[in-house]
Amino acid sequence: MQGTETDWSEVEKQIAQKAFHTAYKRETTALINEICEKINLVTEIEDVWQLHDYLSAKRHEIDGKYDFDYSAFIFVFARLIKDKWLSLDELSGIAADKLSKMSALSRM
């Protein structure tokens, strides 16, 4: 199976889109909560610059991770499962061969 967009049925695309946005919301909410905690620890300008650097790195990581491209979804979902932002159960309804690949890749 190649990972092209045509390999995803309309139902699978709907499930994938919902799961993608669910994981994104979970991760960004967790980041916001983390930043709220970190901001209370800022006492010096160096703390501000460290927070800036941290946020820049997180933005780069999140922007790279959440690539809305059906041809990459097997890998995207495998990573989100591995990072615990998504569970395989939340992808129920997607073809078994795709789920199997995601599951295997998430354990690597």
Describe this structure in words.
The protein is an all-alpha fold and 108 residues long. Helices cover 67% and strands 0% of the residues. It is built from 4 helices and no strands. Helix 3 crosses helix 4. The protein is elongated and about 55 Å long. The two termini are 19 Å apart.
Write out key terms for the chains shown.
4 helices; mainly alpha; 67% helix; single chain; 108 residues; elongated
- N to C succession of SSEs: HHHH
* Poorly predicted runs: none
Query: C-alpha Rg, in Å?
Result: 17 Å
Mean pLDDT: 93
Class of secondary structure makeup: mainly alpha
Q: How many angstroms separate the termini?
A: 19 Å
- How would you classify the quaternary structure? single chain
* Helix run count: 4
Tally the beta strands.
Answer: 0
List the SSEs and their pairings.
Blueprint: H1 10-39, H2 45-65, H3 73-82, H4 96-106
Helix pairs in contact: 3-4
Outline of this structure?
This protein has 108 residues and is mainly alpha-helical. The protein contains four helices and no strands. The chain has one domain (5-106).
